[in-house]
Specification:
Largest sheet: 6 strands, mixed
Strand content: 25-35%
Distance between the termini: 37 Å
Strand order of the largest sheet: 6-7-8-3-9-10
Helix content: 25-40%
Radius of gyration: 18 Å
Number of domains: 1
Bound molecules: adenosine-5'-triphosphate, magnesium ion
Oligomer: single chain
Number of helices: 7
CATH superfamily: P-loop containing nucleotide triphosphate hydrolases
CATH topology: Rossmann fold
Shape: globular
Order of helices and strands: EEEHEEHEHHHEHEHEE
Low-confidence stretches: none
CATH architecture: 3-Layer(aba) Sandwich
Number of strands: 10
Length: 234
């Protein structure tokens, strides 16, 4: 029997209402993401890519439909349960890194661990150093974000997303603000996290070259996911 996918979305619908305006970026969307897959999501601006990442990562909740990550039914959790779940089960990587400017690289990476009760300072140190090592920045631990290049800042952000050892990483245009060389380094790091470290990665991108680093690319079109590039204008 084949292993159950890490992510399962069934008839996932998200409706935003602002006054009399109703937006339905996702409508009865179905998606399976196998464990250890590096999946790229593409689609025009406003097609619902970030909305989908926010649902998968428990930052936002669906209007209807079912969403499971592993054996957890995310779509039925309360906001409080989701916050707790996210702390250990899902790392989020943003286009603009979202590092705290007054903290060092080490302190930024340590932040998610402070949400976990019962981790001693020395246990945290082992994990933070391992995460910085994995992204190749052990020698920049004391640098603040302003003392790092964009590519290095994104690697610190990846270390922060990884430090609690979640199975799932979501990344919203992680190379969107980087030059080609730094972008390629980030993409090969993400590829290694999936192939060697067995992380499941869902990455939104507008860049076809970035998508080609992934195992599979899906396109958001009219609230649904499609496999063929022809039906979705990029
Ligand atoms: N909190 C919100 N309240 C109301 N409408 C929203 C909200 N968030 C997103 N939307 C709307 O939902 C639609 C999808 O937005 P989303 O941010 O998911 O698009 P996207 O595919 O990530 O676009 P981009 O490529 O520009 O980042 C848009 O029409 C947007 O205006
Ligand atoms: Mg977006």
């Amino acid at each position: 029997m084949s292993e159950q996918p890490l992510i399962r979305c069934r008839d996932l619908t998200k409706v935003y209402r602002k006054g009399r305006i109703e937006v339905i970026p996702l409508e009865k969307l179905t998606l399976d993401v196998p464990r250890g897959e590096f999946l790229a999501l593409m689609g025009p601006s406003g097609s619902g890519k970030t909305t989908l990442l926010n649902l998968i990562s428990g930052i936002d909740q669906p209007t209807s439909g079912g969403l499971w990550v592993g054996d957890q039914e995310i779509s039925r959790m309360s906001r409080g349960q989701l916050t707790k779940w996210r702390a250990t089960e899902c790392g989020y990587i943003f286009q603009l890194y979202h590092l705290v400017s007054i903290l060092s690289a080490y302190e930024n990476v340590e932040l998610p661990l402070l949400l976990q009760k019962g981790l001693s300072k020395s246990a945290r140190r082992v994990k933070v150093n391992a995460a910085l090592d994995l992204v190749g920045l052990a020698d920049r631990a004391d640098h603040r974000p302003s003392e790092l290049s964009g590519g290095q800042e994104q690697r610190v952000a990846i270390a922060r997303a990884l430090v609690a050892d979640p199975k799932l990483l979501v990344a919203d245009e992680p190379t969107g603000d980087l030059d080609r060389e730094s972008a390629d380094q980030i993409l090969s790091l993400l590829g290694e996290l999936a192939s060697v470290h067995k992380k499941t990665i869902v990455m939104v991108t507008h860049d076809a070259k970035a998508a080609s680093a992934a195992d599979r690319t899906l396109y958001l079109e009219k609230g649904q996911l499609v496999e063929s590039r022809e039906v979705a204008a990029l």
